[in-house]
Specification:
Length: 156
């Protein structure tokens, strides 16, 4: 069980306060909370958003392709795809080149859902970066991307 207190309930030792790892962890916890709360309100998760965003960029795709492109484990991608199919946000068709494989495409309903999810994600970003002006936000993104280096950033 995570017994971490909210940042308003504790005062970190000075030596700990300025550590990049501590600051990144704390902002990560806030980000997870802000994004999660918004998406859970409509019964979805960041995984649903990632799959729809991936399909918007490059479709059709197999479940294995979606797993690789989003960083969602192959065993979890099945549930995400099933849930999106239940909502009629995606459709599966048999790959004519390999009848053992399904190809997944986003539907018009999926495009509309992605727009709704994007609004929720945008609101969470706004809440998260409320104290930064637009230039500082861009700089933060650039610095975080540099800190990550060439690593592919799966959905985490």
């Amino acid at each position: 069980m995570d017994r971490t207190l909210a940042s308003s309930q504790w005062i970190a030792p000075k030596r700990y306060q300025g550590l990049p790892s501590n600051l990144i962890m704390r902002i990560g916890m806030r980000a997870k909370s802000a994004v999660g709360a918004g998406l859970e309100g409509i019964g979805l998760s960041k995984y649903h958003y990632a799959v729809l965003a991936a399909l918007e960029e490059d479709a059709p795709a197999s479940q294995a392709d979606l797993s690789r492109r989003t960083g969602i484990d192959r065993s979890d991608i099945v549930a995400v795809v099933n849930e999106l199919e239940t909502r009629e946000a995606i459709e599966r068709t048999t790959d004519p080149a390999d009848r053992r494989r399904n190809l997944i495409r986003m539907t018009d309903v999926g495009s509309q859902l992605l727009g709704e999810l994007q609004q929720i994600i945008n609101a969470a970003q706004e809440e998260l970066l409320l104290h930064l002006d637009p230039e500082e936000r861009e700089q933060l993104v650039r610095l975080l991307q540099r800190a990550l280096g060439d690593q592919v950033d799966p959905i985490g």
